[in-house]
Amino acid sequence: MSMFNVLVVGQTGCGKSSVVNMLAGESRAPTSHDLSHCTKHWVEYAIPVDGHSFQVFDTIGFLEPGLDTKGYTEAIADTYLAIDTLRQRGGIDLLLYCVRDEEIEKMKGHYRLFHEVFCDEEVPVALVVTSRGISHKAYKAIFRSHKIACVDYVCANIASTPGRSNSAADTESQKAIKELLVKCCDAGPNPRSTLQQLWRRVQKLVGTDQSHRSLKRNEVSALLTRRCKMQQEVVEQLLTALNLQSPSSRLHRAPYAGAATRNLPSSENGASTRDEQVSDARPSSGSQLHSVVDSTSLHSRSDS
Description:
Blueprint: E1 3-10, H1 16-24, E2 43-49, E3 52-58, H2 69-89, E4 94-99, H3 108-118, E5 125-129, H4 138-145, E6 152-155, H5 167-187, H6 194-206, E7 215-216, H7 217-226, H8 232-241, E8 250-251, E9 271-273
Parallel strand pairs: 1-3, 1-4, 4-5, 5-6
Antiparallel strand pairs: 2-3, 2-9, 7-8
């Protein structure tokens, strides 16, 4: 059976673990309604959805680096450990980015960190807006204005305080998130422009395609500074947290998996952690995108 690897990322308190629980249809991932880390390190859950098998990786939420630089770099480094584990298994099928409405304007740097620095840019990105402030359709223009490329997005009802859950809205959100997951994982890699696709093919023909290659320390540093707009002090601490102290150190990026066929062991409750070893798997090809919700094709490489 095809197993889809899904990485769930987002800031602390954005509702990542609640999204995981909605997918599972039960409470598996610990949640919190304050800014404390309810997920201490990445955890994976085997979750079946509509005949598909998903291995969902719930990662540590992160605060802005200016609020807690040490905690921030440790959270990002732990998320990279999950990404590197997925790389060794064959790659990632979907990067599921959860974001609150009020955090969208500030998410571009982290989007680029996960999508461009840690992953091959062909890994599909889907967004879950967990605290809708405007109409669903209006987000399409907002993501475009911030150059956030996603294959699809949904708005979900994630209660910000205990006791304010709405069962009807929760059911609708659960359905929307499940449909998003299935459609995006069936879709294939992130769409590129015709010119970008042509250039990629030329690179492959002449043997210069470096999309899946590892990055040297100075290359990672340059990307964090230029593309992710990180302060140099934060960059240095993050490089240390990623064990990239030496100039010869390398960071390995995770490729798009393409729903490789995997036989994965799991614990009795369907969850396992970063300490558990799982055999490698090789990627296979994915299908084409047939999105039914508002989808966007916004790939951009400018440094703005």
